[in-house]
Amino acid sequence: MRPGDALSYDYTVAKYFMYTTLVFGIIGMLIGVVLAFQLAYPDLNYLAGEYSTFSRLRPLHTNGVVYGFMLSGIFSTWYYLGQRVLKVSMSESKFLMFIGKLHFWLYVVVILLAVVSLFAGVTTSKEYAELEWPIDILVVVVWVLWGVSIFGLIGIRREKTIYISLWYYMATFLGIAMLYLFNNMEIPTRLLTGMGSWLHSVSMYAGTNDALVQWWWGHNAVAFVFTVGILAQVYYFLPKESGQAVYSYKLSLFSFWSLMFVYLWAGGHHLIYSTVPDWVQTMGSVFSVVLILPSWGSGINMLLTMKGEWNQLRDNPLIKFMVLATTFYMFSTLEGPILSIKSVNALAHFTDWIPGHVHDGTLGWVGFMTIAAMYHMVPRMFKREIYSKSLMEAQFWIQTTGIVLFFASMWIAGITQGMMWRATDEYGNLAYSFIDTVTVLVPYYWIRAIGGLLYLIGFFMFTYNMVKSFSSSKVVEKEPQNASPMAA
Question: Could you say which residues form the signal peptide (predicted)?
Fold first, then answer.
């Protein structure tokens, strides 16, 4: 590029990952809705034999949403905003463009292998780490390729200041890289015994140590995918869409560094009342409560960014999505620490309140923020208006209703479970059998399923709006500066 030339960004790889965000979002959420209806109506488990059971489909749902939908969204936004905040185009480096495309295609191969293996029941049975060792190796290669893309683009940047969002992308890369490697150290069973499948493996850790390492990873998969990778987006897209500068640079510094330090040690709260040392459990609880500070620091920073501009909530659906996403983030990061307090955990652990907590963060925070980011990027990447503002509004309210039904029903179900499990009669015997607790929860499972269905319907509306925007919406002559242009 010659001095004085206008900089033209290359969004090829960003578009690829945007497409997979839509596809994997539909697949992962559709399976989730099927699972929700299976809980309400168990006969649905046997429609296709073992392959339609809850236990066979659940890993497909969690991996499809976390590593398909969420990661695709993170990768897409990186390849979009990374160029813009660094003032350099991917097309200026043939090597980085090759790395970006290789990153995408190998990622798709890994996701397909994950779907096939998990559907076949080939799994390590470790939460958020269910893929067997050959696929784990490919995951590492995919992750290294993304790291090369991040630091390669930073290395050729024109803008010397590293914007806040890039701190979070780098932290996502480094955090997951370290944690994934340690937790997924495993040995193929055939090497140990000379028998069995080459695909099967056993963990290098045993018993309590395995649980400790697993939840050091498991909770930080939530930290560095559900949280840090999405914070990277809100710190860019909310100020950009609203036309407002980030409220406080000092608060962003405090929130980032304290989040990095505190989050890593909170995983022990998954093992309260287990065989791990009591001090580890206590440390997990304490660090979880302290985690409120950096989490709310970022949330407050984003909400105060809108100071004096709240009228945009009325006119711009994207602002609605992002503000509510930030609100759900603050809500979820208060709820999590409360659940980690030992006395509360004694009631809530193993109940539906726990997946309720995960889903209000995933659907409200991650889902809404990813949707808003995609909507913001379309006019700038495809040079076309968003197809329908009214469809965006309808989607927002349908999905919001779905989230409220979902988490409210699971709160009530979880607290009901916990209270019934603890209830005793005058002789000290348990007052209820396990099946009593299952039966009483059925109405709440129906509400949960309906809430999930509403969210899925909203996601189909989002996908339709996006596809129409790609293909047949009005061409944008000039890139929008603040709010995305809307067709009638």
Answer: none
